[in-house]
Amino acid sequence: MHESIYIAASAGLKQSRKMEMIAQNLANVNNTGFKRDALVFKEMMPPFPPDAGNEEAKNALLSPEKSNKNVSYVGITDYYTDFSPGALKNTGGSLDLALDGEGFFKVQTPDGPRYTRNGNFRLNTAKQLVNQNGNQVLDLNDGPIVIDAPGEISIDGEGSVSVGTGLANTTITNIKLVNFENKKFLEKVGDGLYRHTGSPEDELEAVGTKTRQGFLENSNVTAVEEMTEMIGTLRIFESYQKIIQSIDSMNDQSVNTIGRVG
Question: The whole model's pTM is what?
Answer without folding.
Answer: 0.79
